[in-house]
Design goal:
Elements (H helix, E strand, L loop, with lengths): L24 H21 L4 H16 L4 H30 L5 H27 L15
Length: about 150
């Protein structure tokens, strides 16, 4: 009694070892959390907390994991720098509105909406790229933390 050829399972090839220097699954996950924690900060602090709530999460993750996970160190700094840059932009627009006794709101409100949408989209893209192991760089970011 022989086994038919179509029922024979071919041997599975050995899994490829991870590339040298490639971030591990844990590092990729923590880097993704560094980016997504800004979204959680925005949800928790609401629309008025964007100035400080969005960089608390990336700051905490970066401070906790920077010495043990190089990829998280890189992406945590990137997320932190981007969210600080966005907070500065929001603050400048707020100051413009206050200094012009509200007239600056005609400029500030549309820019807040545009910056807010761009922030949301770029944060999600960065989280996806970090989960793929890509060293993502946000555009228009001040590199304050090196």
């Amino acid at each position: 009694m022989s086994v038919p050829p179509e029922s024979v399972v071919p041997p599975t090839p050995p899994s490829e070892p991870p590339l040298v220097g490639a971030p591990s699954a844990g590092e990729r996950q923590w880097a993704m959390f560094a980016h997504l924690s800004a979204l959680i900060g925005a949800i928790v602090t609401g629309p008025f907390g964007h100035g400080w709530g969005c960089f608390i999460g990336p700051l905490i993750i970066w401070l906790v994991k920077k010495d043990t996970m190089p990829f998280v160190n890189d992406q945590g700094k990137e997320a932190l720098n981007f969210n600080i840059t966005v907070a500065i932009a929001f603050l400048v627009l707020l100051l413009l509105s206050i200094m012009t006794f509200g007239i600056g709101l005609f400029i500030a409100i549309p820019l807040w909406i545009i910056i807010g949408i761009a922030w949301l989209v770029l944060t999600i893209i960065a989280a996806i790229k970090a989960n793929e192991g890509v060293h993502y760089r946000y555009p228009f970011t001040l590199r304050l933390i090196k």
